[in-house]
Amino acid sequence: MGANMARRLKDCGHPVTAVFDVRLEEAHRLAAELGCAAPATLPEVAAAADVILTVVSDDAAMRRIFLDEGGLLAGAAGRVFVNCATVNPGVHEEVAAACAARGCESLEACMASSITQARDGSLYLMVGGGEETFRKVEPVLRDLSKSLRHVGATGEAAKVKALVNMVMNINTAGLAEGLGLGVALGLDPTMLKEIFAQTGGNSRVLETDADDMLAREHECWFSAAHAAKDSGIANDLARAAGVRVPLSEATEAQYRRLVAAGRGELDKSAVAELTFPGRCED
User: Is 110 exposed, middle or buried (0-12, 13-18, 19+ CB in 10 A)?
Assistant: First the structure.
């Protein structure tokens, strides 16, 4: 995601001055492609740009890059950080407070899209944080997105993103069960797909995941591990709000089964491996 966002910004004429990845060889390869630096440390990244976009995997990674000694905030006064990870709202709030204490600003820019959309600038971005900070970086974000919404204060966009992924994951697991049961009943899955698409069984994931489920092609666009994490974030929010979400809890449990089976790096469509007859032995 981050690499394709950098490519898109370069194409749009923004000066991409530095890229960083924990896999240094990947950062050096991308830097050579874009004609920019690949600093070895996080403080060097912050020193190289006025606006820094971050895309990390989870709460621990987010805290590490911002709150650990030698992280991005060392000497980062005046910088604006735009954080695109799907993490707990409270983590975005922690990061925002840490940034303010160091004389810099932060936004959350949660993405409801995938790798292809990052490359062509058609991300759906939900932004949380100060209005003034948002306006400051709005031109950059508009070049990355087809739909850009400032939804409120820090933490609000992360809540919305958690609900988006909660519903998406439920839909994906439900589609896998519907198609898998159809196959078990001897029904033609292609016929099922066509009827689903014209009835109440339709959904966005029918378009994106059904063929992959049938063909067992699970090249990763959005991993099962991330699906488990994101459903978990939503379920934590539900527990804190005192709201029961049994469907989301069952969906999280399915994705955690995939992770436990060593299949967490497959695409979320791999949840079909748990529901189609004859595929999963556990």
Answer: buried
